[in-house]
């Protein structure tokens, strides 16, 4: 059940006073609105994960396996052996504090355990106790502590108050990536069955139906058919949307929210219009009907299994390469992990745009191109007819979604597209965009109703940067390229900055795109009156 949102004035009054008691002595309080619910037994069983049961974090008894401590410590040893980065991150932090005020959850909550350095210390203190000579000998004097149930509960609370956004890593002089530490922390918790529903249920749905939302193949097909009907009504043009067509040149993979949620759906319409207009020979897959990968938020193993599905479908359908939609964590997985998980995808070809001939050499290993890269290339080559004035009802700023930004460096292409499709664009402050972008506060599986207070707190720095351009430039639209952002930014902005809408970049492309043979258009993809002279382009 959704909780009532707290008063914004209350959340804006963040108390940064350092607690008088040491952080180790402060017990974790599972207060409503600040944590996520546990995974029900059926979803844990669906994925074959350990310790399926019914429980909740606010329960006194977490029903852990009798040998839970051994399982965690063995799991830690295994990961120290397998991941060099994990061992390094455990050893090299000098506690300089440069990362401390860079986390949106600390800025929004004032809780010291939400500073990246202390979040990592939750795990590091246990590492010292069991895996270093100093920790074994000197215990607390060496910053070590025993692994207890209270420590485990603290891990759960704070590793599920990190969106794995990696903003802190940009500012760490040693390049320590606290998101990776959070990933390991969550993975260790999952070994004893401590996971959250909003991560594991979507992953289980992917196993059952091919996508996070659990949409059956016929629902997927109906949704795309509905989109074709809407586009015909809007433009007078009937477009073909192929599904599971063997021998197509390109496999199109999008986040499932694109064909079942709003404002995502308008992004989907935008892709379909561009691909039709550019004459691309593509197909969807009913089996790989999800680009997103909630496995990333649970464990490396689950991430690998979900990622493999996309490539299995590319092989089955005999395509040459893969085009991926506006998604966040899909791209983090593809760019940062695919290369050593499931690649190289040698059975595919290095992607080449069939329209412009551009060869996307940076995708030589993954064979997967971002739709913004593809469309920006079309625009750069003058291959799309665009009427910017059709977006004149929007005064736009751009939110660099954490994963495409810090996970793959996709900074220029969305901006090049926006410059090509609209007249009114204003950047937010320099220290809140590009690699320094601020998180929506609800990524990595935290975008739940029960966690609403923490989401509003964590998203406040982003919202304040939007508020700044709204005040100075009258911005009324925040564009972004992540499905989670499109779900979580609207309630965040409604809470902190009412009057600013959220749109996908390809929605704005769809508004501006003048299709060959289209009938006079009077509305945008949302059915709102067009901003400019769009109707004149019949
Ligand atoms: S900036 Fe890096 S080295 Fe400094 S405290 Fe944070 S994680 Fe440790
Ligand atoms: S990865 Fe993001 S959410 Fe996690 S500690 Fe760093 S800044 Fe905070």
3D structure, described in words:
The chain has helices spanning 8-12, 41-46, 68-82, 84-91, 104-109, 116-131, 133-138, 149-159, 167-171, 178-191, 197-209, 217-235, 264-278, 300-317, 329-341, 371-380, 402-407, 412-421, 452-473, 483-496, 505-512, and strands at 250-253, 282-283, 321-324, 368-370, 396-398, 477-480, 501-504. Helices cover 45% and strands 4% of the residues. The protein is mainly alpha-helical and 538 residues long. Helix 3 (68-82) crosses helix 4 (84-91), helix 8 (149-159) packs across helix 10 (178-191) and helix 13 (264-278) packs across helix 21 (505-512). Strand 3, helix 15 and strand 4 form a beta-alpha-beta unit. The radius of gyration is 23 Å and the shape is globular. The strands form 2 sheets. It has a 4-stranded parallel beta sheet with strand order 2-1-3-4. The termini are far apart. It is built from 21 helices and 7 strands. One iron/sulfur cluster (SF4) binds next to helix 6.
């Amino acid at each position: 059940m959704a909780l009532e949102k707290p008063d914004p004035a209350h959340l804006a009054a963040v108390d940064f006073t350092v607690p008088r008691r040491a952080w180790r002595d402060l017990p974790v309080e599972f207060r409503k609105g600040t944590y996520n619910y546990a995974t029900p037994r059926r979803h844990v069983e669906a994925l074959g994960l350990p310790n399926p049961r019914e429980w909740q974090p606010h329960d006194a008894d977490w029903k852990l396996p009798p040998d839970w401590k051994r399982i965690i410590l063995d799991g830690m040893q295994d990961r120290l052996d397998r991941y060099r980065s994990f061992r390094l991150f455990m050893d090299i932090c000098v506690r300089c504090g440069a990362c401390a005020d860079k986390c949106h959850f600390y800025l929004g909550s004032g809780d010291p355990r939400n500073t990246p350095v202390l979040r990592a210390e939750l795990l590091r203190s246990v590492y010292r106790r069991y895996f270093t000579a100093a920790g074994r000998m000197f215990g607390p004097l060496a910053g070590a502590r025993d692994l207890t149930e209270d420590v485990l509960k603290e891990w759960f609370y704070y590793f599920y108050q990190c969106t794995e956004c990696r903003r802190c890593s940009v500012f760490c002089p040693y390049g320590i990536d606290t998101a990776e530490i959070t990933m390991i922390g969550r993975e260790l918790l999952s070994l004893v069955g401590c996971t959250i529903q909003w991560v594991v249920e979507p992953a289980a749905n992917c196993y059952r139906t091919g996508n996070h939302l659990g949409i059956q193949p016929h629902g997927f097909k109906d949704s795309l058919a509905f989109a074709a009907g809407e586009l015909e009504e809007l433009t007078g043009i009937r477009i073909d949307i192929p599904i599971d067509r063997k021998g197509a040149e390109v496999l199109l993979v999008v986040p499932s929210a694109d064909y079942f949620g709003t404002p995502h759906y308008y992004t989907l319409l935008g892709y379909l219009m561009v691909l039709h207009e550019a004459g691309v020979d593509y197909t969807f897959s009913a089996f790989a009907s999800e680009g997103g990968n909630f496995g990333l938020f649970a464990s490396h193993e689950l991430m690998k299994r979900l990622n493999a599905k996309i490539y299995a479908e590319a092989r089955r359908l005999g395509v040459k390469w893969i085009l991926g939609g506006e998604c966040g964590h899909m791209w983090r997985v593809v760019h940062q992990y695919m290369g050593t998980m499931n690649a190289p995808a040698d059975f595919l070809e290095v992607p080449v745009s069939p329209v412009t001939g551009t060869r996307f050499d940076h995708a030589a290993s993954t064979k997967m191109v971002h739709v913004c890269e593809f469309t920006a290339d079309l625009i750069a080559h003058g291959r799309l007819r665009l009427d910017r004035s059709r977006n004149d009802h929007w005064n736009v700023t751009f939110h660099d979604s954490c994963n495409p930004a810090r996970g793959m460096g996709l900074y220029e292409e969305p901006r090049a597209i926006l410059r090509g499709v609209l007249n009114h664009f204003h950047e937010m402050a320099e220290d809140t965009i590009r690699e320094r972008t601020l998180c929506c506060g609800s990524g990595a599986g935290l975008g739940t109703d029960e966690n609403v207070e923490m989401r509003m707190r964590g998203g406040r720095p982003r919202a304040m940067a939007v508020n700044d351009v709204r005040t100075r430039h009258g911005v009324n639209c925040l564009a972004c390229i992540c499905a989670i952002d499109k779900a979580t930014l609207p309630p965040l902005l409604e809470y902190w900055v009412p009057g600013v809408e959220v749109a996908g970049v390809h929605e704005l492309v769809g508004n501006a795109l003048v299709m060959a043979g289209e009938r006079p258009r009077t509305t945008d993809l949302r059915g709102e009156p067009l901003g400019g002279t769009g109707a004149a382009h019949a």
